[in-house]
Amino acid sequence: MAYNDRFIRACFKQEVDRLPVWYMRQAGRYDPEYRQIKEKYTLLEICRQPELAAQVTLMPVRKLGVDAAILYSDIMNPVASIGVDFDIVKNIGPVIANPISSRQDIERLKPIDVHRDLQHILDTISILDRELDVPLITFAGAPFTIASYLIEGRPSKSYIKTKTLMYSDPGLWDMLMNKLGDMVITYLRAHVDSGGKAIQLFDSWVGALAPKDFERYVEPVITRIFAELSDLNVPKIYFPGVSSGELLPQLTSLQAEVIGLDWRVSIREGRRRTEGKYAIQGNLDPYLLTAPMDVIKQHAKEIIDMGLETSGFIFNLGHGLFPEASLEKLQELTAYVHDYSAEVLARRKA
Ligand code: CP3
């Protein structure tokens, strides 16, 4: 089969014959085959076996017919290399053995050594680079989102310890952001050197900040990450996570190609708030996927119609897939986005 570069083209706002589709967390527990593999191995055990991690990455690409693969990994993986012990615990998420709380803890964080500690991830990327006929997206967690796990020790709703450190010791906070920023830059560069074709920076929880705090405490490191990776000839995506609509006007000068939106801001409004600077990715409410198919399609159609108002749109969810989603509905949704957008684009050309 010919290589499908629709996703890359849309990231660069080039012409496409139909809209590209992929889903955040597209390898996951909604798929019975994935659940079977998870009965034998934990997430981290899968990640340490490149052949298996590549197979799990490929599963949704084959089953759903999506236009991009996303590396099967987790945003926590690189922190093992800077000296943080963690586990991904069933029904909780990332749990840190010794959460960070002092200056000493932050000073102790080591520079990442991808080849020494994370070669298995690079090997997975190399395997996928040979096997895929769609682009491979690799990713990292952004400094705020990673810091929230390192400091809270586990998923949090309030981010109270994180904000306490941020507001009470801005100098120390900046040191932490910069150390995590260095980690992200080195890690993502190694991904692209190993065959990754696009990169996404997941800042899942940064929407917890007010715009002026984002500007002071987070934006400098995000700007630096994209600036330092700007020589890489792959599309770069910033996903500011959930509830980040108020931050969008602040994101107009990143050296990135794509901004991801959650479902609270429409595609049209997201483009307006970012001054049309980026391609847009999103933003179906993942929890809508439990609704009847005609309701799902009705919402998808609205997103597609807005997406097609200008070039540069990638259909996705507003956040990750969850275990209750249905494989059949996802297959039908993917086909619908492809077919309906192809029809609109063909009509326009005629
Ligand atoms: O998208 C994909 O298919 C690639 C795989 C992927 C995983 N984690 C595997 C995973 C990706 C892109 C991630 C990123 C990630 N991890 C994020 C950013 C995206 C987002 O959702 O905002 C975050 C915040 C994490 C941290 C994390 N890992 C949490 C909060 C959890 C628990 C959530 C849950 O659903 O239980 C995890 C575990 C995790 N990482 C799972 C998967 C498929 C689910 C549990 C499992 O299957 O073992």
From TrEMBL:
SUPFAM superfamilies per record: UROD/MetE-like
GO cellular component: cytosol
One GO term (biological process): protoporphyrinogen IX biosynthetic process
Catalyzed reaction equations: uroporphyrinogen III + 4 H(+) = coproporphyrinogen III + 4 CO2
Keywords: Cytoplasm, Decarboxylase, Lyase, Porphyrin biosynthesis
Protein's cellular compartments: Cytoplasm
Site (Transition state stabilizer) residue list: 74
Listed name of the protein: Uroporphyrinogen decarboxylase
EC number(s) reported in the record: 4.1.1.37
Binding residues for substrate: 25-29, 74, 149, 204, 319
Pathway it works in: Porphyrin-containing compound metabolism; protoporphyrin-IX biosynthesis; coproporphyrinogen-III from 5-aminolevulinate: step 4/4
Keyword Isomerase annotated: no
Gene3D superfamilies the UniProt entry points to: 3.20.20.210
Keyword Protein biosynthesis: no
Species whose genome carries this gene: Paenibacillus apis
Chief localization: cytoplasm
Function: Catalyzes the decarboxylation of four acetate groups of uroporphyrinogen-III to yield coproporphyrinogen-III.
Subunit structure and binding partners: Homodimer.
Domain Uroporphyrinogen decarboxylase (URO-D) per the UniProt entry, residue ranges: 20-29
Protein family according to the UniProt entry: Belongs to the uroporphyrinogen decarboxylase family.
